[in-house]
Structure formats: C-alpha cells, structure tokens
Amino acid sequence: MSSTLGTLFKVSTFGESHGKAVGAIVDGCPANIELSEADIQPQLTRRRPGQSDMTTPRDEADQVTILSGVENGKTLGTPIGLMVNNRDQRPGDYQEMSDVPRPSHADFTYQMKYGNRAASGGGRSSARETIGRVAAGAIAEKILAERFGIRITAWVSSVGEIDARDMSLDVPTRAQVDANMIRCPDEAAAEKMIELVTAVRDRKDSVGGVLTCVAEQVPIGLGEPIFDKFEARLAQAMLSIPATKGFEIGSGFAGARMFGSDHNDPFVQKDGRLGTATNHSGGVQGGISNGEPVVFRVAFKPPATIGVAQETATFGGEASVLEAKGRHDPCVVPRAIPIVETMTALVLMDFVQRQSFRIS
Amino acid sequence: MSSTLGTLFKVSTFGESHGKAVGAIVDGCPANIELSEADIQPQLTRRRPGQSDMTTPRDEADQVTILSGVENGKTLGTPIGLMVNNRDQRPGDYQEMSDVPRPSHADFTYQMKYGNRAASGGGRSSARETIGRVAAGAIAEKILAERFGIRITAWVSSVGEIDARDMSLDVPTRAQVDANMIRCPDEAAAEKMIELVTAVRDRKDSVGGVLTCVAEQVPIGLGEPIFDKFEARLAQAMLSIPATKGFEIGSGFAGARMFGSDHNDPFVQKDGRLGTATNHSGGVQGGISNGEPVVFRVAFKPPATIGVAQETATFGGEASVLEAKGRHDPCVVPRAIPIVETMTALVLMDFVQRQSFRIS
Amino acid sequence: MSSTLGTLFKVSTFGESHGKAVGAIVDGCPANIELSEADIQPQLTRRRPGQSDMTTPRDEADQVTILSGVENGKTLGTPIGLMVNNRDQRPGDYQEMSDVPRPSHADFTYQMKYGNRAASGGGRSSARETIGRVAAGAIAEKILAERFGIRITAWVSSVGEIDARDMSLDVPTRAQVDANMIRCPDEAAAEKMIELVTAVRDRKDSVGGVLTCVAEQVPIGLGEPIFDKFEARLAQAMLSIPATKGFEIGSGFAGARMFGSDHNDPFVQKDGRLGTATNHSGGVQGGISNGEPVVFRVAFKPPATIGVAQETATFGGEASVLEAKGRHDPCVVPRAIPIVETMTALVLMDFVQRQSFRIS
Amino acid sequence: MSSTLGTLFKVSTFGESHGKAVGAIVDGCPANIELSEADIQPQLTRRRPGQSDMTTPRDEADQVTILSGVENGKTLGTPIGLMVNNRDQRPGDYQEMSDVPRPSHADFTYQMKYGNRAASGGGRSSARETIGRVAAGAIAEKILAERFGIRITAWVSSVGEIDARDMSLDVPTRAQVDANMIRCPDEAAAEKMIELVTAVRDRKDSVGGVLTCVAEQVPIGLGEPIFDKFEARLAQAMLSIPATKGFEIGSGFAGARMFGSDHNDPFVQKDGRLGTATNHSGGVQGGISNGEPVVFRVAFKPPATIGVAQETATFGGEASVLEAKGRHDPCVVPRAIPIVETMTALVLMDFVQRQSFRIS
Fold first, then answer.
1. Which chain B residue has its CA at the smallest distance from A160's CA?
2. Alpha helix ranges (H) inside B18-125
3. What pTM value is reported for the model?
4. Which residue of C has its CA nearest to B227?
5. ipTM of predicted complex
6. B4-355 homologous superfamily
7. Which of D252, D42, D247, D268 has the alpha carbon at shortest distance from D145?
8. Which of B68, B147, B349, B357 should we substitute to test contact with C (largest number of C Cβ atoms within 10 Å)?
C-alpha cells in the first residue's frame, strides 16, 4: 500500500468502504489559512452517491469533521486530520460474491497480493476510498483559488459513443457543469448521454466515459523535471483514480498524428507576457507549466460491477455465472468530476510549494 | 528539479546535452547480480542517434562506464555509478536560437523557472538526458528477465496517420522490432512510415507517433494502491519521457466507449492459475498486476525543433521568424523504444522490491 | 511540518493537545496480522498522564479506536486509521501565557515559523502529540515480537544526578520496570529518584533524566547505509521525541575516550553463529545490526513548563516574570518509556520490511 | 542501501574505496549560483588523508570534477554531477583479512546483509565514501554563507581522556582550527592530544575523540516537526558518518542532570529581536531553530582497524589472531571536521529550502 501523495503538501488517506470511517491527514498545509468544514463539504457532496438516477442510490451523508490543525478558524500549519464516518458498515448485498471474484474488479488482485481482502464491497478499492482525497484536495483548491486565482473545472466530454462538443477554449463554470445530471454542459449531448445511461442502467449494464479538465490561471514555472514533470505527476494522480484507463494532455493521442509545423505553439505577446497562439501543448512545455490553461482528458472504463449475468470462474477455477445484486453506478463519470478536480488541486498545490522557493 | 525515481530501486540521473557527461546512480540494486558494461550497452546503442536516416545524424558513441557498485563482475549491493561522456560539448548550430525560444520546446519554461538555461541545445530537456535512465533501466531489465522471465517489448504502432496492425496479442521480439529502420514489425505499415518520415525530413518538418509496449510474465500482485497503483506509476514514468502527450493501458480511451458487459474480462482457468479470457484491463486490476500481459500505449508529439520557418516571438515579445539550423530528428518514436522499455523496467523493478516482502 | 515516518512501514500522525482528536495512519502494515484495540492500548495507558504523583494529574482515558485496515480481527494490508479523542479540549490554565513565550518551550519558535500557534497548551509540540506514534509503534512491537521474538525494553537510568546501576547486560522485564513509579528497576536508585522528583515537584521545578533502551533478538542485517544506517534512523527517531537532547549507542560518548584495542568487540562463536565477546558497538557495525543487543541511551532535559517564577521577556521584548499555573510533569522520563520503546519499534519494523527483500 | 539524503536539496552518493571513482549528484540546487570546482576543493582537501602524521599516509589527490549542472560558471538548476577518481584502486595490504572479519568493522555485517562485499578495504563502509557528501555539502556551505551569512565550524574538543576547554561561546575560525595538526584550537590541549595520538600510532593502536560544531547565523524557523525536527535530522546526519557513536545538542547529556529552573533559557531582547540569555537549548526549541547558535557534539569511537594483535574469529567461527597490515588512521577526528561541517550544511540547506515557502 502507498497511501501518501506529495512532497511538501502531503496527503495520507485511510479507509475502506465498510469500516468505521474514511479520511485523510493533510500535512504541510500553510498556516493562517481560513478553513472550516464548510470549505470542504461541497466537493464531498458533489462526489456523494445517490444524487440522481444516474448514480448509485446508496445514501451516505458524508459529513466531514476536522479533527486537528485548525484553531479559531485558521490553520495552524500542523497536520489537518479529516474524517467522514461510514454509516452503512455491513450491507448484505455483497456477500454472495465471496467465492467468485468480480471480473475486472480488484477482488482477485487484492486477494492475491494481500492474502486477505474486505469481505464486503470493494474495501480499499471501492470508490469510497476517494473521500479522503476529495476532502484534502478541497483544501488545496481553496488555497490555489485565493492566492493565485486558479480555477479547476472538469466536465463530462463523452459517455459511450456520445461526444460533447469541444469546450476547452470556452471553459464552463462548475454551476454550468452541475446544471444537468450527467454533468455535461453541452446540453444536446447531455440529453443523449442521460438517455444512454438510463437505458444501460435499466438493462443492468454499465458504460464508460471521458472527462475533460482545465486548470486556468496556473502560474508559469510549476513542475519538477525530470521525473516529476507537471504532466507526469498529473498522469500519476489521474491513473490512481479507480476505473481510469488513460490520460492525455493538450493534443494527446491526436497530436501523435500531426506534423511539427502544425503542432508547434508559436509564441505571441499576450496581456504583457509571452504566451502561445495555440495550445497543443496543453499548458506544459518540458514538464513545466507555461502559463496557458492546463488541458487534459481522463478515460474511465465502464464500472465492473454489473447485474448482467457474466460467465466467469470462482477463485478455485470452476466455471460460474455471476449476477451482481444491489444497485450500482451504471456510469462513474459524473461523480468522478470532483475527484479529478481535487486530485488536480493536490498536484498543483504540491508544485506551488516546491517551486516557490527562491533564495534571493 | 526532481531527478530521482523509485522507492527501493532508486535511480538518480544527471547531465545536460553539452556538459562533460551524463549518467545515473542506481541505489538499491540487489547484491550478487552478474553485471558488466556489456549488459547495459545494447539499449544505449539502440537509443543512440545517428543509427539511420530516420534519426539525427549527430554521432555519439555513448559508451557507458560503471564507476562503482560492481566488483569481480558482481554487484555489491552498493550504489552503481554509471557515466557516459559527452563527446560533442559545444556545437555552434544552436547558438542563434538564444533570443527566440523554440515554439513547443522547453527553452521558455526553463528560462522562466530557473532564470537560467543551457545556452546550447536543450540542456536538461534534451533527449540526451534519457541516457542515464536507459542505462539504469537496462540493469533492471536484466534482473527482471533472469529472475522472473519478464520480457518488455515496445514497437512503433503509428507514425502520423499511418497505423500498424494490432500486434499486442502476438508480441514481436526485439529482433523483429529492429528489423527495419522505423522499428515497426508490420512491414507493410513500416514501409509507408519510412516513406512518410523521409518526406517529412526532406521538407524539414517533423511528425508524431505512438508506441505500444507489452510486458510479459509480470508476476501477479505488483503495484501499490492507492497512489502508487501499477498504472499510476507507469503513467508517471511514461509522461516523464520528453515529447510524450498521452498514456493508455489496456482498452484505454477506446474502453471509455464500451459497455461493462463487453469490457469486463471474465476469469478462466489458464495454465493452472486463474487468468482472464480477454485483456481489456491491460494486465492490471485495482492498481495491481493480474498476471496477464501489461499492455500500454504512449503518444509522442512531433519534435518541436524543425527547419521549417515559424512565425513566433522573441523572449522580449517581438515578432520573429525561426528556422532551426542543423539536423534534427524528424520523428522520435524509433529511438524512444529503448527509453519506454527501460522506464517500464524501472517501474517494475521497484514494484518487485516493494512487493516481495512477506513476513511469514 | 513533517509528520510522516518510514519508507515501507509508514506512519503519519495528526493532532494537537486541545483539538478534537489525535491519532495516526499506519500504511504498509502486512496483511493477516491479528490486531485489535487491546493490542495497542497497553502502551497508550503506560504513556498516559496521571498514573502517579510523578506525572501530571490531567486525566485522559486515551482509549484508541481502529477506524480502518482491520476486518474480522485481521489486518487487510490497507492503511490502519487510529484515533484517540481529546476529552479536555480547552483548559483555562494555559491562557495567560499567550503574551509571554515560555522559556525553552516551543511557543516562540512555532509562532515565528508558522505565524500562528495553538492558543492553549503546546498544541502540536505538546507531549500529547506522541499518542499517534505510540499507537502506531504498538502495532510494530506486536509484529516484531511475534515474528522475530524481538523484545524492546526501556528504563530510567538516571534522574538528575542520581544514576542507576548498569542493567544493559541483564535487561529487566517491562513488569520489573513498571514495579515502581519512576520506572527504574534498580530499587535503591529508584527510591532516591522518587524522593528527588517529589521534592522538585513540591518546589514547582522540574528535573531531567536519561533512559536506557535495549532491543534484543534483532536479526542480523538491518539498517540501510549510508544515510539510513541503523543508528542514524534510530537517532532521528529519538531526537524527534519532545525534550530530548542527546542520543548515544553502545559505548557512546564514553567510547570516544577509549583505545581501539580496548573498544573493539572480538568475534566469538556463539549459539552456532558469529557473535561478539563484548558489545561496545551497541549491536551495530557499519550501520547494520550485528545480532547483538541494540543498546542506546536518550537524554531528556528538565521539562520547560515550571511554576517557579522566571525572569524572561514577552513576544514584544518587554521584561516579564512568568509563573506557569496548573500542574505539570516535574520529570518526563517515566512516561517517555513507552514512547522510546514504540519509536524503536517503528524504526526496526521499517528496516525489517526494507531488508527482507531477496530475489532468489 | 539508502544513499540519498534530503527532501528538496537532495544528495545521492556513490562509490567504494577501491572502485573507479566516488562522487555525488546534487539535485535541487538553486539556479544562478556561481560555482566552480574551486569552491568545492578546499573541504575535500581538508578531508584528504595523508595531510600529517596524525592521519593515514595513503596519498590521494582527490581532485573533484563537475560533470553537469553548471554552465558559464553558474548553476543551471539541474543536477550537479560530482566525481573524484580513485587513484589507488587495488592495494595488496588488505587482502589477507578476507577470512577474518575485522572486529568492530563493517566486514561482518556487510557480508551478512549483502552476501558479498568489497574484497579489499572497507568498500562502501570506508571513510572514502564520505567524499561525495563533502563535495555536495561544500556547495550547500557556499550558498548558506553567501545568502544568510551562516558559518559552520567544527573542532576537536577531546581525544581520549584529553579535553579541550569549552570554546562554544567564543567560536574559533576554520583557520584557527587548522593551525595545528589535531585541529584543536586550545593549544595546550592540542599539544597533549598530538602527543597521545603519536604514542597510540606508534603502538599500532587507535583512540577516539569528540568534535564540537557550531552553526552561527542560522535563521529562526528552520526544522520540520515532528519527525524532521532540526535536531532529529541533524542527529541522523551525524550518526550516518562512519565511526560515530553519539550526538548531543545544547546541554545534551549534562542537561539531563539539571533542574528546569537552571536549564531554561530566558528570553531577552537582543539586537532588535527576541533571543535567549543562555543557550542550553543549543539553538533549537520544539525542533525549530530559535536564532541562537546551533551547538552540538559528536562522539567518534577509536578506529577499528589496528595493527595490535587481536584475538578474534574467522567468518567460519574458528579462533584467529588478526594484525592489520598497512598504515591506518590512529584517530579520525581531525579528518572528520570537514565531514561534520558539510553534513551540517546539507541538513541546513534542505531546511532552508523546505521553510522558505510562504504563500503571501
């Protein structure tokens, strides 16, 4: 296990889906930041299941408590302990799965690696694990917004074969993103996506999707070549989110099909500083932010737990048919939005703290 | 700067394109491994420029010297110092670029971050930086092959709009990969790719491409959720390679368009162990290797340094036209193959050492 | 702040003296270890204040709760969340200190470093911070005892000018250590120490002391030269405990007065393995454990918070007289015993996990 | 092995006593620092053996080469590669030791841990290993001196039973320290020490000693509680130096014999800032520097390799008599001075970089 992220703004998380609590410690947060639970709760609430027909109806209030690190409404510079109780500690729905590892889920690999695994639900591999990160990242978001004006916004850019129009040059607000259940600000596409997810849910199947995320007002100079290049740490952060299968920044895989003369971003004078006329680079050059918006996409596979009957095998290797009981997310991308945003904030915040040293 | 990678098998690299030397320290290598320069040289030679018309003709022998950590042909368990001298320390070709940052290159961001940069060539952002990694990774490859039979093979799967056929289920050998200049074992595609790169080179332009890489015989259980999931650290490693813009594992971005009932990999009995019938997961589930081949793709943008005239701006913001002198790689993907392979080996080797602890 | 310790057995702690809770996350604990709160509580209880007239009478039950990482009485291999509620969240006793930094306490340096500090008590610099470490270290102790038979025992070897006889060759049990209030198993010395501490307490002063600690049955080969030598990491761990001023291993400062021909520990055959006839090395040679008992001493200064009137200055630099109100520990060494023992266990456990890798 | 030190100013070292070279990579050094070999060489030369009758006559020029990270006399912000060739790669003197592990040396523990060891000399456990650290630390010293006026000075305060007078309140200059062969600025004591070391050398024995080190002009606020407290990381650094057995800061072990009312350092107004009237704290409170001089002592054991006949055992457990051939240091403390100073600089420099972040 490796549940600690960051060099100076360091987050350690804990918690399974059905233990007593989940949470995190944020170590290295600057002192004298105004902070209360109210700053953290909104992203946790956006992440919460049961918000709509699009997501699993399991009800969890997910109220965060700050255990330490804040006094009189201000951070002390000491570790911030964050905790969210699990209400729903032992559901019956999961139990019959125990002999049959769910295909494309972590049941098999956890059992093989640890020789043990949470008997119910996904344990540490459950989406519930992300609560600690989201809570920690919400603190990073607040600092980045207040001190640098950084805005981080993700939205659903595709579900299955339905693609939204490109909005990376005209970034929506979070309110616009949240305006519909699927969190795609292209309303025409959103309608079709909702239709698709509803149909998929009704037939007990699931479907994948892609998020686009843009970080605006990122200062020039963040990122630590060579192994902690901006895009390298961002890719690590994104691929650590459950169900992700791909990451691309700027032109991404499409850029691999282009010629240099089309792909290069020429420099131009912009608002009194050097900027680029195009942004195929996605805001980074040589592993360092260049002042343009950081634009990236993250691919999520269809959720592995489905009610459709699957021919598979038991741990012992015997043929078996699995039909997951209970209600499960038919599509994770709407709920993944606050996770992607807050993970981005964690990466940025750590770079900010590593960069800002100047002996002068 | 952050030039150290790994938790137990730890690699630190140094060196600019035009300093005295480039190299690495490998700390945490097991003792009693047979090792000599001859084990490391082949991947360095495959990475070397000037091997064909496809790559930059700058001639560098790139002979590695082991400075420490090996005695009587065996590793001591102490840090292995690795060094490759730079022959060609101060070329004139680069000099007139100094006022004009090359578009989509690291000139601008290095200057902004550090307030200084190598006057000639790309300095630390040059492809020459990768020598230290390749040398270190060649040691990891040797150990992984000898002890676990792990084979890591990358090949060119696309150049520009030319795609090779899918070879991930019938993985070529390195000899097959090296059989043509472009390192694509689909000969029909290779021919077109070579034609394209030749044309691109002749018009002083550049073109991007994609590598596919497969790691076979990876033991079950590698990867350290949650932040050091297998695919997360692999993504970090790949996005730390110069010119990369995207990473996907298994089904990747295509998987985001699929339904769960199609995407899930059913378990089947296989050679006396539990395997999966399909491999959309790309060899990892829940951030841990599942014993199937690890399959991933890496997107490389077209090289930024081109001879085509580019309208851009000086550091001071004045309009300027830039035409890079000298000969430059029109396409990096053939030379990127040993880099991707050895970086994969570094990630795997670190996971092997972190995993193999069992108190029992 | 840096509240995370360890490379593979990683402990992150949180909590101030007067927040809601203190605690820790233990990441990297092996799976399938039997574990419950009952395994952790004894060392927390030994650390607890109010156990005797020797220590501060502030009453805190210090009951630990396991929040995650354990299911059905066994560890899952996932992070273990540990929490102890603070009962006594806002005492009045400390308030009038706010303008006058306590001499030799952390009030001044915290304020200067963070520009903020806990208004009451020592906040993060309080002895209460050690609860998270002790809870985490109790888990390490259990594993080390069960798998290797390692025993870690500390006792009070001096208080002020009163020295106990050397017991490092005839190590007492924890029960013998706990047999008297001062936790010194040399009863004659203990009696004088108790007398001294009582007198010191009555005149509202404080006194320092030294602990000796021995780790027995430590396997040969632990420690990671050069920067993580066994004694280097042990020294770091000990000097991270509040109020410590010195660390010495084996012959320590006395060894610096000796000749090599007297100091060297000759090898002898011992129980079928190579051991040493003497143990001036204190169980380590070249930064690596040699199989002999690890013997070290830790110096604790007299507690800084005293009722005696002190002529000092306010934060603003004005002369002031400070008399601490309330009841404070006149001597920390008895309560420091479980802290020293569990910190030793954390260092050892991390070395065990880093060492045991053998590709073979 | 763990040969990397530091969080932001990161040093990785390599090299055995009889390989091709020893050296280091310094990663995270600020850019635009004027730097050349001439800045590094003096401390290497002070460390060099063969400077006097007091130290081993083995002749090594120890000329450092900067391999990377510096261009036109200024640092680039990229890793600085540092190398010193080993002249004397295979001496015969050591060979007959191979069956008999030297008592109190690392021969036995290296063999047991790694299953291999350098056949000649101490390999990685040799004092020659410290060259990389000294070279790296010399860079840190330069930056600390130029930007903060920090002065770090160590001297020999005891050899065997001969103690110099306390000079911690009237710190000598390095020139004064170097004025005699034993590097003790108390001339009366120095004379006796030299006499003692000469006698010890003549009878082929060795003797231990203690260094005192003072860092002046250390800014307030350095150190990262709780695990990276100033004194904790300093203790780790010191105990990672070969032959060290103890560390104490400020009052140290003597402080453990004192009462709080005597030991506390009262605050006083001093040069326009709050300082302390006494300095029992040794410049740190709560793990953070308080602006007073940092004063600490390090105990060195007598060197293990002696010519005196020692009754010991072979690796196989058979009784044997060992008389080391060749010439060896009878006392390491004079040569340890630059090592202690530069290791202090490495610890300080890392704290400076970790501290100086202020979002404001």
1. B257
2. 37-47, 107-114
3. 0.96
4. C27
5. 0.95
6. Chorismate synthase AroC (3.60.150.10)
7. D42
8. B357
